Amino acid sequence: MTTVPEAFARARAGGRAALIAYLPAGFPDPASSVLLIRALVDAGVDMVEVGIPYSDPLMDGPVICQAAEIALAAGTTTDDALQVVAQVSDGPAAILMMTYWNLIDRFGPDTFAARLAAAGGVGVITPDLTPEEAGPWLAACDERDLAHVFLAAPSSTPDRLAVVARAASGFVYAASVMGVTGTRESVGGAAQGLVARLRDVTDLPVAVGIGVSTPEQAAEVAGYADGVIVGSAFVRRVLAAPNPTAAVAAVSELAGELVAAVGRPNMQEVR
Amino acid sequence: MTALPDKFGDFGGRFVPEALTFALDQLAGEFLRAVADPAFTEELAQLNSDYVGRPSPLTEVRRFAAECGGARVFLKREDLNHTGSHKINNVLGQALLTRRMGKQRVIAETGAGQHGVATATAAALFGLDCTVYMGEEDTRRQALNVARMKVLGAEVVPVSAGTRTLKDAINEAMRDWVTNVSGTHYLLGTVTGPAPFPAIVRHFQSVIGTEARGQILDRIGRLPDAVVACVGGGSNAMGLFSGFLADPDVRLVGYEAGGHGVASGQHSARFSGGAPGVLHGTRTYIMQDEFGQTVPSYSISAGMDYPGVGPEHSHLHDIGRATYEPVTDDEAMAAFRLLSTTEGIIPALESAHALAGAMRLGRDLGPDAVILVNLSGRGDKDMQTAADYFGLLPEGP
C-alpha cells in the first residue's frame, strides 16, 4: 500500500510531477480492468484513480460515459470496484477511488470508508460533493487516513478556493477548464492561474486534470503543478484496442510516455 | 425575502461539480435582489396577466364529481395558460432573471416537451438563444413538441446516452452548463436540482396556490378539505401546496406515477418504491438499486417518468404534512377519459393522475368534502398516446 503523500514524495524524488491515471473499474469488464490498472502501475504511474461506474455521470464527457455504460452493462457494482482496488493496491502506486456521491451515500460514508481502507485504497475523489455536504464523510475518511480530495474550478472565487482547500486532504484537484472530462486540443490558460491561486490558500499538493491527454500537455502542466491527471486518453486507448491484450499494451505505452513527459530534468522543484 | 432555503429538513442541498458553485450563488443572489425590486415583481405580474392569461380560472366540475363520491371538485385551470401548462409560470420568472444576469443563452431539459416548449417560448419573447435537451426516446414519442420548439427558434438536441429519457437530458444539460456557464443560464423546469433551484421554481409556481386559495374562499367561503396534484418532479404540486401549507386542516395529496403497478417495478413511484439518495444535485427520494445506481423509471406519461422528485416533497412526506400515493396508468387513463366525456376538458396525462387520485379521495371523504385539483396541463400533446391506448384510430397498413 502506498499513501498519497508517499506517492508525491516518490515523484518528487524522481524529479517528476506525479502522474495520476484514471480508469473505471469493470471496464471493459472486472478482470480486464485489473490487468489494465496493473499495467499503469508497472509503467510507473504514481497514483491511480479507480472510477466506480455510475448511471448518471454528469461531470463526464462522452468517452468516460461510454466506458461507464460498458462497465455497468458488464454488471460492475461498487463491490466489484472495491475488489479491483484490493487486487492492485499492493504495488508502488497510491490507489484512490473516484466516485459520484450517491454510490458512497448508499453504503453510508462510514461503511464505504471502512471497506475502501480494508481494500488498501488510500483516498477518494468526489467530483459532485461540495465541502458543505461533506461533514460525516470527512470524519469517516480521517478516522482511516483516507485522503478526501475535492475539486477546484477556474470559476471558484478566492473565498471558495479557501473553503475547498480547507476541506481537502491529500491534494487538491484543479479542473483545468470549465467543462466535463475529455481530451482537448490544449490545456486551458486558466489552469496555471488556478494553481497559482490555490498556492495562496494551501500547502497541499495541487494536481491538474480534465482535458490533459498528450505527453506535450502533461509536460506543460508538470511545469507548474504537483500532479498531472489523465483519464479520457487512457479510456480512448482501451476503446480503440481490438482485444484486451492490445488494450493493455496501448495503456502501458501511453503511461510510459506520460511518465517520461512529467519529468523535470532542467527544473528546480516547483515549490 | 432575505435568504433562500438550501435544505428542506434532511433533503435538498447542493451536490454539484465545484465549477457550478459560482453560477448557483450568482443565481441565488440575483433572485433575492429581483424579488426585492418592485420593477421585477411588476414586470412579472404584467407578463402573467397579459401574456400567460392569469389568473387561471377555478372551474367546478359537477358531472365529473358525481364519480368522486359526490364530493365537490374544483379544478385550477393551469391548462388554459399560454403554452398549455403551468410550466410557463416558472419559465418567465427565470427568463427575467437570465436577462438581469446579463446572460444571452438559456438551456433546458424536457421530457414530454412542455417545459421545452415553454422555455423556447420565453426565449423567443426575450430574444435569447435557446437549446433544449431531450432524450432521444422522448423526441420520438413527442415529435410534434420537437417541431413546436423548432418553430419557436430553439435548437433541440436529442440525447442518446443512458436510458435516452428525461434523466439523461438533465445530465446533458448539466454538462452544457458546466462548460458554458459564464454566458448561459440553465432554466431548470421543476422543483429539484441543486439549491437554489427548488426554492426559486417553487416561488415562481406559488402563484398557483396563492390564486387558488383566494378563488376557493371567494367561491365557497371556506378552505377545501384537500388539495391534490400530480407529482413528476413536483413543480405544479409545490406551487399549489405552497398556498395551503399554513392551513393544517387542508390535506395535501400528491399522486405519483404507479405505471403498471408498484409491484411490477415499472413505475415512477419514488415514495412507494424508492429511498433517500442524491440525484441531479439534490438529496431526495429516488429510485435506485442497492448500490445507488439510478433505476429506470416508467410511466405512460412522459412528464411523470422521472426517478427523482423535488426535495421539499421528500420533506413534506417525511414530516407527514403531505401524503403521496401511486396512480397506475390505467387509473390515469380512466380519469383522462372521464373528465373529457363529462366536462369537455381534455387533461394532460400528468394531470390525469391527479384526477384519478381525486376520484379515489372523494370516495373516502364523502359528499360533504371539497377537493381542489390542479389541472396542470392540457391533453392536446397526448392525443397519440390516448389514441393508441383506447384504439381510437383505424389500424395502420
Describe what you observe in this structure.
- The complex is a heterodimer of chains A (271) and B (397).
- In chain A, helix 2 (30-42) packs parallel to helix 12 and helix 5 (101-107) crosses helix 6.
- Helix content of chain A is 48%, strand content 14%.
- Chain A is built from twelve helices and nine strands.
- A nine-stranded parallel beta sheet of chain A has the order 5-4-3-2-1-9-8-7-6.
- Chain B is built from 15 helices and 14 strands.
- In chain B, strand 1 (7-8) and strand 2 (11-12) form a beta hairpin.
- In chain B, helix 5 packs parallel to helix 7 and helix 13 (329-343) crosses helix 14.
- In chain B, the strands form four sheets. Chain B has a six-stranded mixed beta sheet, with helices on both faces. In chain B, strands 7-6-5-8 form a four-stranded parallel beta sheet, sandwiched between helices.
- The relative contact order of chain B is 0.16.
- In chain B, 44% of the residues lie in helices and 18% in strands.
What are its keywords?
heterodimer, A: 271 residues, alpha/beta, TIM Barrel, nine-stranded parallel beta sheet, B: 397 residues, six-stranded mixed beta sheet, four-stranded parallel beta sheet, 15 helices, 14 strands, 18% strand
